[in-house]
């Protein structure tokens, strides 16, 4: 064992040991799409008295955190996104309307003196005019500290004592009488604690007990002392408790409280027509405090617990089956080295899982697909190395006795050395696409970008470190050295053997290949124009509800029934036998219930398994972000390839990428599948895959052209294409195993994802060979630039001409 192998082995052992430790000791955070729950995206808005800046959003986040804690949700997550958005995840919560109502209320609590009743011509307060609860309300001190009773029907006169005060807002009380209020004497900041209690003994039912503190206690005493000076039955003897510009209670001070004395003790009650839920909700809002600025719900997602569990189970089975089929394929094609690569794939799974735990990322359904997809990247790296090692082994020739001149280990070392540049370039382009997903996408798709980055880095460690260590340790054994056929390197493989025997010239008719690309583009554009692109709710805004019905429901029948119920623009899709999806414009809670009632009636019962609502402003923003991400992806890939290769290669590769994007969008238009956030993830992944193929081909073109600068570029390109076909075929088969498993076994979301990738990989493989290369040939013929210089061998030193002294040699000799 060489020193380099020992160092690699120690490093690989350290990485695996740390990964195993993290996997055993750290719990994984599952996204809501895998465990069920509700996600809300709240956006802060400016108010007349406050600006929704970054500081206001942070203070709003703390208020929301207190409210969520009071709800008793297990393992909630609240994070700020940008300067104005707050993402709230509530596992297990299946009533998004109630959660949004509790979190979205400003909950500005104030207590006002009542100046008197208002005339019919008086203007109400600015804001929404509430309609109080039915039944009388009271605000009383704690038992033993005085009392305050409701006056019942108010008189129509104003209090002379308060007539000199500045006129305040006009609000209806519990009975609908319009009251003119004075400036707030007490706010929610003066409340130390609010508790929902049930008083069966006094017959008041559910009420909210308030404990006042400091200035709040003094303000309450002063307010009730002034109100007690008004005669009994006078509106001015009342105190109005207002929540979000709505009087929720306006009790009258008890006659036993003397003028100028007030209610002391710092404790009072809000009683009225409360039930248990409303009393607890009001106490929760008071305890949480008022929001510094208003918030608006711009996105809402709910996933049922059964759907989350089923998605996790089906995705895990698809990943295991796809990985197992890929491992068997590698072992069949590359024999012993393929089996070692399969073992390295298992190590990849451990490393990527540990990295997910280390960064504290949340595993979502698209994120799980990102990990599965990164397996294909690891397979691609292994295939690149093994195919190059086969070439190096065959190039070594044989002795007169028929023995190979180059050992399998030496051929493998050369394979790693020559394949490294192609592996690095292809993985960096995929990381670029993943980084754009993280920068411009949101929600689960952003999680896909994170996990894809982790997966790509883990795949490079798996292929370039662990596979190499296992292979070097195995090939150093004499038992293996004596049997080179066991290694999988002694034979070139069926694809390479067929190509060498037939010696085709795929670029002989290079002008015909672009015609096929033009035909595919025309077909795709026709689908986009004729069928139209079915944008998902992420890009258009609206409501998407997915149901599982007891009996099958015809989509046209459901569409007609929803139109009769007042939803003529509803779009209905069915998948399977009992799955039905309804997409409409944004709906209120009442309208959402009507849609559910219609579907339940048609299907003999229906269970809501997914519910998403996106505001129109967020939808346009996501659509704009998707276009920016796609544009930056194409520009970034072109810039990177121009730096690493030549501008002609970069332009050809990006043209092939644009071809792949249009064809994939057109295919989804013809299939009638939605273009949503998951499709965006698949599209950018296809961009990365297509660039991988182009990088591998152009890397071989650069190497062959530098070695034979006098050869025509068309001949060099044809040779490079034939030499990389075995890698393209074997990598594609490995990816197809994984994606086919996802398409067949995973849920609807990942099925569309897998279908998009299957189409994209097929189109990308074709375009990288038969669109990018012919275009590069035409551009090179027009540019007239010289061929690339040969790469200087590692460690080679420049030879000085005879008689030339070294740089620091003065010529003096002693």
TrEMBL record:
Keywords: Cell membrane, Membrane, Protein transport, Translocation, Transmembrane, Transmembrane helix, Transport
All copies of domain Protein translocase subunit SecDF P1, residue ranges: 58-114
Name the UniProt record assigns to this protein: Multifunctional fusion protein
Function statement: Part of the Sec protein translocase complex. Interacts with the SecYEG preprotein conducting channel. SecDF uses the proton motive force (PMF) to complete protein translocation after the ATP-dependent function of SecA.
Residue ranges occupied by any SecDF P1 head subdomain domain in the UniProt entry: 176-293
Topological category with respect to the lipid bilayer: Multi-pass membrane protein
Boundaries of every Protein export membrane protein SecD/SecF C-terminal domain copy: 296-471, 598-780
Bilayer-spanning residue ranges: 315-333, 340-361, 367-386, 419-441, 447-467, 513-533, 625-643, 650-671, 729-747, 753-779
SUPFAM superfamilies xrefs: Multidrug efflux transporter AcrB transmembrane domain
Subcellular compartments: Cell membrane
Positions with biased composition (Basic and acidic residues): 801-814
Main subcellular location: membrane
Keyword Cell membrane: yes
Subunit structure: Forms a complex with SecD. Part of the essential Sec protein translocation apparatus which comprises SecA, SecYEG and auxiliary proteins SecDF. Other proteins may also be involved. Forms a complex with SecF. Part of the essential Sec protein translocation apparatus which comprises SecA, SecYEG and auxiliary proteins SecDF. Other proteins may also be involved.
Organism domain of life: Bacteria
InterPro entries: SecD, SecD/SecF_arch_bac, SecD/SecF_bac, SecD/SecF_CS, SecD_1st, SecD_SecF_C, SecD_SecF_C_bact, SecDF_P1_head
Pfam families per UniProt: Sec_GG, SecD_1st, SecD_SecF_C, SecDF_P1_head
Organism: Streptomyces ramulosus
Keyword ATP-binding: no
Region ranges (Disordered): 113-191, 783-814
Polar residues composition bias: residue spans: 153-162
Similarity comment: family membership: Belongs to the SecD/SecF family. SecF subfamily.
């Amino acid at each position: 064992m060489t020193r380099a192998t020992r160092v690699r082995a120690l490093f690989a052992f350290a990485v695996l040991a740390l990964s195993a430790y993290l996997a055993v000791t750290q719990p994984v955070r599952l996204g809501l799409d895998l465990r069920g729950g509700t996600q809300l995206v709240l956006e802060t808005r400016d108010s007349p008295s406050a600006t929704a800046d970054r500081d206001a959003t942070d203070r709003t986040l703390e208020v929301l955190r207190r409210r969520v804690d009071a709800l008793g949700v297990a393992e909630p997550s609240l994070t700020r996104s940008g300067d104005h958005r707050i993402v709230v995840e509530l596992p297990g919560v299946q009533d998004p309307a109630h959660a949004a109502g509790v979190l979205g209320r400003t909950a500005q609590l104030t207590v006002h003196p009542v100046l008197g009743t208002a005339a019919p011509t008086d203007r109400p307060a600015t804001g929404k005019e509430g309609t109080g609860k039915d039944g009388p309300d009271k605000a009383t001190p704690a038992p033993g500290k005085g009392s305050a009773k409701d006056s019942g029907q108010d008189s129509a006169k104003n209090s002379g004592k308060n007539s000199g005060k500045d006129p305040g807002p006009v609000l209806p009380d519990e009975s609908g009488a319009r009251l003119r209020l004075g400036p707030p004497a007490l706010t929610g900041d003066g409340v130390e604690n609010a508790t929902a209690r049930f008083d069966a003994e006094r017959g008041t039912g559910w009420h909210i007990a308030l404990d006042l503190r400091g200035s709040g206690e003094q303000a309450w005493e002063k307010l009730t002392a002034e109100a007690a000076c008004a005669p009994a039955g006078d509106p001015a003897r009342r105190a109005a408790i207002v929540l979000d510009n709505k009087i929720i209670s306006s009790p009258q001070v008890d006659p036993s409280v003397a003028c100028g004395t007030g209610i002391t003790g710092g404790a009072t009650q809000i009683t009225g027509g409360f039930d248990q839920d409303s009393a607890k909700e009001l106490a929760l809002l008071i305890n949480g405090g008022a929001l510094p600025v208003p918030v608006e719900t711009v996105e809402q997602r709910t996933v049922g617990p059964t759907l989350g569990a089923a998605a996790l189970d089906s995705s895990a089975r698809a990943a295991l089956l796809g990985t197992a089929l890929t491992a068997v394929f590698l072992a069949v094609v590359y024999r012993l080295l393929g089996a070692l690569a399969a073992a390295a794939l298992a190590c990849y799974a451990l490393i990527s899982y540990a990295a997910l735990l280390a960064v504290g990322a949340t595993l979502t359904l698209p994120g799980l697909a990102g990990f599965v997809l990164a397996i294909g990247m690891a397979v691609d790296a292994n295939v690149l190395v093994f195919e190059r090692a086969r070439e190096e082994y065959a190039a070594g020739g044989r002795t007169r006795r028929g023995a190979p001149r180059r050992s399998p280990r030496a051929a493998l070392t050369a394979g790693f050395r020559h394949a490294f540049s192609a592996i690095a370039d292809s993985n960096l382009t995929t990381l670029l696409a993943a980084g754009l997903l993280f920068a411009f996408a949101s929600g689960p798709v952003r999680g896909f970008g994170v996990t894809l980055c982790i997966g790509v880095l883990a795949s490079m460690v798996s292929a370039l470190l662990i596979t190499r260590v296992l292979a070097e340790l195995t090939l150093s054994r004499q038992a293996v050295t004596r049997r080179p056929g066991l290694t999988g390197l002694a034979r070139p493989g069926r694809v390479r053997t067929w190509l060498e025997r037939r010696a085709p010239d795929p670029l002989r008719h290079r002008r015909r290949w672009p015609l096929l690309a033009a035909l595919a583009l025309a077909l795709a554009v026709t689908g986009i124009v004729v069928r139209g692109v079915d944008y998902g709710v992420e890009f258009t805004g609206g409501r998407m509800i997915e149901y599982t019905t007891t009996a099958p429901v015809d989509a046209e029948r459901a569409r007609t029934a929803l139109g009769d119920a007042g939803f003529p623009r509803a779009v209905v899709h069915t998948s399977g036998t009992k799955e039905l999806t309804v997409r409409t414009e944004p709906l209120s809670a009442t309208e959402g219930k009507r849609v559910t009632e219609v579907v339940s009636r048609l299907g003999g019962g229906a269970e809501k398994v997914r519910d998403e609502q996106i505001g129109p402003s967020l939808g346009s923003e996501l659509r704009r972000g998707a276009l920016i991400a796609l544009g930056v992806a194409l520009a970034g890939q072109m810039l990177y390839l121009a730096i690493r290769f030549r501008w002609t290669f970069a332009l050809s590769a990006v043209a092939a990428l644009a071809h792949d994007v249009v064809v994939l969008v057109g295919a989804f238009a013809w299939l009638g599948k939605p273009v949503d956030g998951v499709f965006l993830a698949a599209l950018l992944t296809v961009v990365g895959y297509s660039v991988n193929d182009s990088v591998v081909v152009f890397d071989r073109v650069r190497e062959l052209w530098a070695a034979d600068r006098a050869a025509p570029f068309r001949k060099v390109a044809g040779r490079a294409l034939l030499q990389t076909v075995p890698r393209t075929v074997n990598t594609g088969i490995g990816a197809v195993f994984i994606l086919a498993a996802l398409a067949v076994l995973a849920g609807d979301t990942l099925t569309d994802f897998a279908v998009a990738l299957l189409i994209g990989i097929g189109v990308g493989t074709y375009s990288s060979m038969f669109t990018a290369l012919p275009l590069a040939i035409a551009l090179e013929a027009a540019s007239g630039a010289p061929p690339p210089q040969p790469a200087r061998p590692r460690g080679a030193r420049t030879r000085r001409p005879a008689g030339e002294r070294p740089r620091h040699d003065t010529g003096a000799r002693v």
